[in-house]
Specification:
Blueprint (H helix, E strand, L loop, with lengths): L12 H14 L7 H12 L5 E5 L2 H11 L5 E4 L5 H9 L3 E4 L22 E7 L8 H11 L2 E5 L7 E2 L2 E2 L6 E5 L12 E5 L2 H10 L4 E3 L2 E2 L9 H12 L1 H19 L5 E3 L6 E2 L5 E5 L2 H14 L26 H9 E4 L7 H15 L1
Parallel strand pairs: 2-3, 2-4, 4-5, 5-8
Antiparallel strand pairs: 1-9, 6-7, 6-13, 8-9, 10-11, 12-14, 14-15
The structure holds pyridoxal-5'-phosphate.
Length: about 350
């Protein structure tokens, strides 16, 4: 049996069918229907923000936030992220200025942000990489000094808390992805969490053609979440605790067995973080070729690990004109590997992966 790097969690079939039954009665399938509103409320009750706007996916949510804050010019961001973060900036007509990341937790390095700020800079868009939360105090101080907006790509950080407080209120807004492969999903989906009422109202308009009245359009685009997506979210939310608990068991089993292995380093998480165990990243010592050999060896034995994030988003040809050197991020992209991790991953399967990793290093 193959072990994939990830596998979507599904609620019991009957439960989802029951959840969507009322849609056949109401015939209301999208456009802010009952399930949509229920999901907003359910998510809000598990958050520390006043407003949550739902979107068809996390990427559209991020683009919509960039538009809602009317960002202009250039944005300081990280190249060690999923392509979506950079795409959103470029798609909105802004220039990404790539800042290097920290060696220990892979998030943007605040000590390198200030030197990149110019007259043109309007925001910092940073990613909570693998669920590790950015150095938000330092980022906040810089943003305040230069009057910049801060948007977090929190696609990996759903349900996480720092010092017992949810991470959603850090910065001006947080984007969360509800893609099938994430800790919590709505098949595809995403959200913007914010305390800014005006921005939330704008986001609703942006997600629905900017239709302010029947004959007034004030924004372009369409990115609403539909009722079937929201219904999946309502079901999955009931299992969130189990999902995270199971991920944690698998995560800890990996760590127990791998932590003494000298050929790799396990990603560090800060102590005061209540985690969601979204990924199992390891840093493979011995350079890019060693990592490639390990991936090939795992694959030959039925285990799909993932080069995530590789390449750096600044290395994609379509973003060539924005390239800047970011040595730490480059090193990480050449050495980090994500091992399989998902809610249904059995401890026996973790053992199988670990045995292969140990066998590889001899
Ligand atoms: C998944 C992901 C996204 C995009 O989310 P979608 O819901 O797939 O559009 C953005 N940023 C990061 C870091 C992600 O992992």
């Amino acid at each position: 049996m193959k072990i994939n790097v990830t596998k979507p969690y599904l609620p019991p079939y009957e439960e989802y069918i029951y959840e969507i039954k009322s849609l056949w009665d109401s015939c209301w399938l999208t456009n802010f229907g009952e399930k949509h509103e229920l999901l907003v409320e359910a998510l809000r009750s598990k958050s520390n923000v006043k407003y949550i706007n739902l979107f068809t996916n996390g990427h559209q949510a991020l683009e919509s936030a960039i538009k809602a804050f009317s960002l202009k010019g250039s944005v300081i961001t990280t190249p060690f992220t999923f392509v979506s973060t950079t795409s959103a900036i470029v798609n909105c007509g802004l220039k990404p200025i790539f800042c290097d990341v920290k060696e220990d937790d892979y998030t943007i390095d605040p000590s390198k942000i200030e030197q990149l700020i110019t007259e043109d800079t309007s925001a910092i868009i940073a990613t909570h990489v693998y669920g590790n939360i950015c150095d938000h105090d330092k980022i906040h101080a810089i943003a305040k000094k230069y009057d910049l907006k801060v948007i977090y790509d929190a696609a990996h950080a759903f349900n996480e808390k720092v010092d017992d407080k949810y991470i959603y209120d850090l910065g001006d807004a947080s984007m969360v992805s509800f893609h099938a492969t994430k800790v919590f999903h709505t098949i595809e989906g995403g959200a913007i969490y914010t305390n800014n009422k005006e921005v939330s109202e704008k986001l609703k308009l942006i997600s629905s053609f900017g239709l302010q009245g029947e004959d007034v359009i004030i924004h372009s685009g369409n990115s609403k979440m539909n009722e079937f997506q929201a219904a999946m979210g309502l079901c999955n939310l009931r299992y969130l605790k189990n999902v995270i608990e199971n991920r944690k068991l698998a995560y800890n089993h990996y760590s127990n067995r791998l932590s003494s292995l000298e050929e790799i380093t396990i990603n560090k998480y800060c102590e005061n973080l209540e985690r969601n165990y979204s990924y199992y990243p390891i840093f493979v010592k011995g350079g890019a070729s060693k990592r490639e050999e390990l991936v090939a060896f795992l694959k030959k034995n039925g285990v799909n690990a993932r080069l995530y994030f590789y390449p750096l988003t600044s290395k994609f040809t379509i973003f060539e004109e924005y390239y800047r050197e970011t040595p730490t991020a480059l090193k990480l992209s050449e050495n980090v590997l994500c091992l399989p991790l998902y809610a249904d991953l059995s401890l026996e399967d973790v053992d199988r992966v670990v045995d292969l990793v140990i066998e590889f290093f001899g």
